[in-house]
């Protein structure tokens, strides 16, 4: 073998925000194509790297200072140019190291294999796929399209911009996805379908598998074993999979024949990664579609206000699906004023009499009711009436939640759990009592109020064991449950045929949330929950949604009553415009974590000082550092600083120049644990 001659740029996972941007020079065979997976020496270790496109203007380091590459894993086709462009864009936009992001979005298993192991894996995979072969399978019958669905599909054919499929629950968005995928596959393409949650993949997977029996369909999400994830990723990258269904990480799947991207429930917060590179898979999907000149469908009944604003401006095209399949109507919404109820001495009202009567009616008719309470556990806090003690978490600025089932006090933020004390830890009072109500308590109260009803609870606690969610949903579908109590988990996607009543038991907290997106999320949740009722057209006419509130005059409930998303969005956008908030401004957060709040604040102030002049020149507002709503988490003090600007480009320019200097500043702040920037943060 001839000695390696060329200088090659390689993306490697370097410590974040270190001086090296992620591309390092090595000596290697000039024939190694960009995108080839390689092993390279880094310090004393050998790590995975990806040969990257070399900037032709960059001055190469003197060859004698460079180390040679290790093995090339060239049995794997190089990661294609469009994939490298996507990764480079995401790293730049979200302010992360290129190598860090590039390696982080590969299946972890891939980074561990050596050349021989990988070649063997690939050979086995190709052999298995060839043996399975493509048997021609007759296409199953398809439902006839409604006029609205047909119009949406017609628009897809010549789409020159992202499409917003704005369809109420039950309006047949999935059929549009299926037909769009059919067209993409017929043209020899691959389709990528993104969903917000792993829980929602099985039913969508089933529908796609049923529609495309002869086609290769794979899923990509964090619930797969490392071996499965690698296999599915390889099938996508090799072009052997026709359909890829996945959660946000799937947006980075290399797909050589990609012809369509679908983002279902595009408004869902789960599309934004909340650690490491805090990317938005929805926004990257739009970028990727634009780059490849292919159609992207964003589907939702309650689009994000960003997407809605794009549609209003004509940057996205809105395709309405206003009618429910089968002609069913959305349930009538009844807002119950809890302030009007007479207070019974010493007793708290669980359900307003009108709601209780409506539930009894469903029981008598053998129909199901769904009660939504966005708070799990028995009670959010335990309280001592004698001395005022409350069940605070010693590690977080939060209360520990009382779980009656296992008599524990659990912090939902750091996980710290203890058995419930027999007496008040401060004064010894034996009479410590739960305050407020969570799903466990609601379940218990319902059992008392309606002893004849079969009550089930679905939340993160009741579905922790593998398979238990599916089993519980099965019981609901089989009609073994009359009353279903649960958190927002219940509102998403599930198709409950027997539910004719949905109630939001106590949604008020979200109305006055400190997060400017609070009302947007609440409206989406309630409208989505409303959509759970009356999925069966025959029952739609007598379906109802109840909302218990102390603020019945709130405009949000008014829009909900009329199922009027456009009116709600117009009011919210008016407020956002006046307040200079997204989508009318671009935001970024600089976060700092430290053992004490002063250190975190000092780092942020130092950072602000360093950039104050540039920020002023670019028209960027720097707000003073403040603690986030959860200021202390697992013993760590957190602070954040908001940057706001009317121009996304100006903000990007500032961040790109600022971040390298922050690393240098870091050393000046002993006790600083970590810092990170969050571009387009979901919450502030
Ligand atoms: Zn006490
Ligand atoms: Zn905690």
CATH top level of the largest domain?
A: Alpha Beta
Rounded Rg: 27 Å
Number of strands: 27
pLDDT averaged over residues = 91
Helix content: 25-40%
N-C termini distance: 57 Å
Low-confidence stretches: none
Largest sheet: 7 strands, parallel
The 3D shape can be described as globular
Small molecules held by this entry? zinc ion
Look up the CATH topology of the largest domain: Rossmann fold
Report on the structure:
- The chain is built from 20 helices and 27 strands.
- The protein has 684 residues and is α/β, with parallel strands linked by helices.
- It folds into four domains: 6-81 and 88-108, PriA, 3(prime) DNA-binding domain (GIY-YIG endonuclease, 3-Layer(aba) Sandwich); 143-326, P-loop containing nucleotide triphosphate hydrolases (Rossmann fold); 328-376 and 438-576, P-loop containing nucleotide triphosphate hydrolases (Rossmann fold, 3-Layer(aba) Sandwich); 586-679, Alpha-Beta Plaits, CATH 3.30.70.
- β15 (401-403) and β16 form a beta hairpin.
- α1 packs across α2 (98-104) and α5 runs parallel beside α6 (173-186).
- The termini are far apart.
What layout of secondary structure does this protein have?
Elements: E1 6-12, E2 23-28, E3 37-42, E4 45-52, H1 81-93, H2 98-104, H3 108-112, H4 115-132, H5 147-157, E5 163-167, H6 173-186, E6 190-194, H7 201-211, E7 217-220, H8 226-237, E8 243-246, E9 258-264, H9 281-292, E10 296-300, H10 305-313, E11 317-321, E12 332-337, H11 353-365, E13 368-372, E14 381-384, E15 401-403, E16 408-410, E17 417-419, E18 432-435, H12 439-449, E19 455-458, H13 468-477, E20 483-486, E21 499-504, H14 508-511, H15 518-530, H16 537-540, E22 544-549, H17 555-561, H18 565-579, E23 586-594, H19 597-618, E24 621-622, E25 632-633, E26 636-645, H20 648-666, E27 672-679
Parallel strand pairs: 5-10, 5-11, 6-8, 6-9, 7-8, 9-10, 12-22, 13-20, 13-21, 19-20, 21-22
Antiparallel strand pairs: 1-2, 1-4, 3-4, 14-18, 15-16, 16-17, 23-26, 23-27, 24-26, 25-26
The structure holds zinc ion (ZN) (2 copies).
The site of one zinc ion has 8 residues, from loops.
């Amino acid at each position: 073998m001839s000695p390696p001659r060329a200088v090659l740029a390689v993306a490697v996972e370097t410590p974040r925000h270190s001086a090296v941007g992620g591309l390092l020079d090595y000596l290697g065979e000039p024939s190694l194509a960009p995108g080839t997976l390689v092993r390279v020496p880094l310090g004393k270790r050998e790590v995975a790297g990806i040969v990257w496109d070399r900037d032709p203007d960059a001055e190469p380091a003197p060859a004698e200072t460079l180390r040679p590459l290790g093995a090339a894993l060239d049995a794997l086709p190089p990661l294609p140019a469009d994939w490298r462009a996507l990764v480079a864009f995401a790293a730049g936009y979200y302010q992360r190291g290129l190598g860090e992001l590039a390696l982080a979005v590969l299946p972890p298993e891939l980074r561990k294999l050596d050349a021989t192991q990988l070649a063997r894996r690939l050979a086995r995979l190709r052999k298995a796929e060839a043996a399975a072969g493509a048997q021609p399978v007759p296409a199953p019958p398809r439902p006839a399209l409604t006029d609205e669905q047909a119009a949406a599909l017609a628009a897809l054919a010549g789409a020159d911009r992202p499409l917003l499929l704005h369809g109420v629950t039950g309006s047949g968005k999935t059929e549009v996805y299926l037909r769009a995928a059919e067209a993409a596959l017929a043209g020899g393409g691959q389709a990528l379908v993104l969903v917000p949650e792993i829980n929602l993949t099985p039913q969508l997977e089933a529908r796609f598998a049923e529609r495309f029996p002869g086609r290769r369909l794979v899923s990509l999400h964090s619930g797969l074993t490392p071996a499965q994830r690698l296999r599915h990723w390889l099938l996508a990258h090799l072009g052997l999979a026709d359909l890829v269904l996945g959660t946000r990480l799937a947006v980075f799947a290399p797909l050589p024949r990609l012809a369509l991207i679908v983002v279902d429930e595009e408004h869902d917060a789960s599309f934004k990664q909340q650690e490491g590179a805090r990317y938005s898979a929805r926004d990257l999907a739009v970028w990727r579609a634009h780059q490849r000149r292919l159609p992207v469908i964003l589907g939702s009944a309650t689009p994000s206000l960003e997407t809605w604003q794009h549609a209003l401006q004509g940057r996205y095209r809105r395709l309405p699906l206003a009618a429910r399949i089968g002609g069913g109507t959305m349930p009538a919404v009844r807002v119950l004023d809890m302030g009007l109820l007479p207070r019974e001495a010493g007793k708290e009202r669980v359900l307003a009499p009108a709601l209780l009567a409506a539930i009894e009616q469903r029981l008598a008719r053998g129909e199901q009711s769904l009660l939504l309470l966005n708070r799990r556990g028995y009670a959010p806090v335990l309280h001592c009436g004698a001395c005022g003690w409350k069940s605070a978490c010693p590690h977080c600025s939060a209360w520990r939640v009382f779980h009656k089932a296992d008599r524990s006090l659990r912090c939902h933020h750091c996980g710290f759990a203890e058995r419930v004390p027999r007496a008040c830890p401060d004064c010894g009072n034996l009479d410590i009592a739960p305050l407020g109500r969570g799903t466990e308590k609601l379940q218990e109260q319902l059992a008392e109020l309606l002893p004849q009803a079969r009550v089930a609870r679905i939340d993160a606690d009741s579905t922790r064991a593998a398979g238990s969610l599916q089993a519980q949903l099965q019981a609901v579908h089989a009609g073994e449950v009359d009353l279903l109590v649960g958190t927002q988990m219940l509102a998403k996607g599930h198709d409950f045929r027997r539910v004719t009543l949905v109630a939001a038991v106590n949604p008020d907290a979200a109305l006055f949330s400190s997060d400017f997106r609070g009302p947007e999320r609440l409206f989406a949740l309630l409208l989505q929950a409303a959509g759970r009722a009356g999925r069966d057209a025959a029952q739609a006419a007598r379906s109802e949604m109840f909302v218990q509130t102390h603020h019945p005059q709130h405009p949000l409930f008014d829009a909900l009553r009329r199922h009027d998303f456009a009116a709600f969005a117009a009011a919210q956008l008016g407020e956002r415009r006046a307040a200079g908030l997204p989508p009318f401004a671009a935001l970024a957060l600089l976060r700092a974590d430290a053992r004490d709040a002063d250190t975190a604040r000092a780092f942020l102030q130092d950072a602000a000082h360093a950039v104050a002049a540039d920020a002023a020149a670019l028209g960027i507002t720097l707000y003073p550092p403040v603690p986030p709503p959860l200021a202390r988490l697992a013993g760590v003090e957190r602070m954040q600083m908001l940057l706001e600007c009317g121009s996304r480009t100006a903000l990007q320019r500032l961040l790109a120049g600022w971040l390298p200097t922050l690393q240098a500043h870091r050393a000046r702040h002993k006790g600083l644990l970590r810092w990170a920037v969050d571009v387009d943060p979901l919450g502030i």
